[in-house]
Amino acid sequence: MIYLISGKDKFRRQNEVNNIKEKILAKEEINGFNYQELENPDLSELCAVIQTPAFGSGKKIILVKEFTPLDSKAEDKDIERLCNSLASKPSENIIIFDSEKINGTLKLIKKIKKDFKDSVKEEKFELFRSWDLKEASDWVCKTYSKMKDGEKLNMEIAEFIADQVGVEDSAKLYSEIERLITSGKELTIKNLEKDLDSKHDVFKLIKHITQNQRVKALQEFEKLVKSRELNIGLLAILETTLSSSLKLKLAEKKYPNKNELAEFIGMTPGRLYYQQKDLAQVSISHLNNCLNKVLEIERKVKTGRDQLERAIRRDLLLV
Question: Which of 201, 251, 247, 189 is nearest to 227 (CA)?
Fold first, then answer.
């Protein structure tokens, strides 16, 4: 078997590699005899490892990280050499190519897919799109089901979790799913809202900024500063939340039908109801103004022209 795993979402790529390892090696202890990891190896080293059989009668996994020829042109002789090694490898050897970029237009990739079409499996894990909750919510549902031995999670609940945590960081989403499962509480919108209200964190701050509740937003901001939890990641989550909220408000007139609106936004009608309820008194001009300020603050902070805490307080909360 040959796996081609790619994408900018490093956490989900790593998670997929772990799933493959667990599935193939089952309860076997991972050691140097059945698992080998290579970081951008040279061709000779890679070919030698590929053709080295496993110790004993079990399977062997060879993880090849960020192999340069997967994203840049290789010479024909090197392509032939690698493909010959893959063709003659022991059947018990499982090869996993894990790279941020795998260029499907390259001759090497086309040849691997053609010559080994019955044994190649390709998975891409790009970062979730900030304006569309559906893909992230689907992943939350699948992840929850795997953690809970097949138990299903309602899509509306998954969307609420993805919306509150943000979709920029899949590792953070994963941790939140783990935390909610460990808590043992029934997962309902009501319980999740109570859980959110009990926190003095970034999501409560963002909710107040979005809803133009400046006094409450400033209070939460001071708590974040005091607890030393303020970081530039706040701007990314703010940008995502404001962008998705703005998209919803702009689409409401174009799509008066709730089902059509939900499909356009990329969420269930049930989750759409809660989103519209939260944004009922929020104007498009407010959202647009906040979004522009957040983008400007981000530019200033990243270029060293301003300090994060000062810029947010002055330009976003005290205006």
Answer: 201
Q: Are strands 35-39 and 2-6 parallel, antiparallel or unpaired?
A: unpaired
Give, rounded to a whole angstrom, the gap between the first and last alpha carbons of the chain. Answer: 59
Does residue 148 share a domain with residue 177?
A: yes
Q: Partners of 120 in the beta sheet?
A: 2
Q: What 3-state class would DSSP assign to 168?
A: coil
Name the one residue in this structure whose structure tokens are 């900018």.
8
Backbone angles phi, psi at 191, to 5 degrees: -65, -40
Residues 254 and 296 occupy one common structural domain: yes
Fill in the amino acid letter for 271.
Answer: R
Please indicate, yes or no, whether residues 101 and 150 belong to a single structural domain of this protein. no
Task: Please write the tens of the pLDDT for every residue from 61-102.
Answer: 999 999 999 988 889 999 999 999 999 999 899 999 999 999
- Number of domains, the chain: 3
Query: Quick check: helix, strand or coil at residue 124?
Result: strand
Pair 17, 92 in one domain:
yes
Q: Say whether both 319 and 204 belong to one domain.
A: yes
DSSP string, 203-256: HHHHHHHHTT-HHHHHHHHHHHHHTT---THHHHHHHHHHHHHHHHHHHTTT--
Best CA proximity match to 180, nearest among 164, 197, 193, 192: 192
Q: Give the pLDDT confidence of 133-178 residue by residue, as tens digits.
A: 888 899 999 999 999 989 999 998 998 888 878 777 788 888 889 8
User: Is 193 found in the same domain as 211?
Assistant: no
Range(s) of the domain holding residue 135:
127-198
User: Which of 38, 42, 46 lies closest to 86 in space, CA to CA?
Assistant: 46
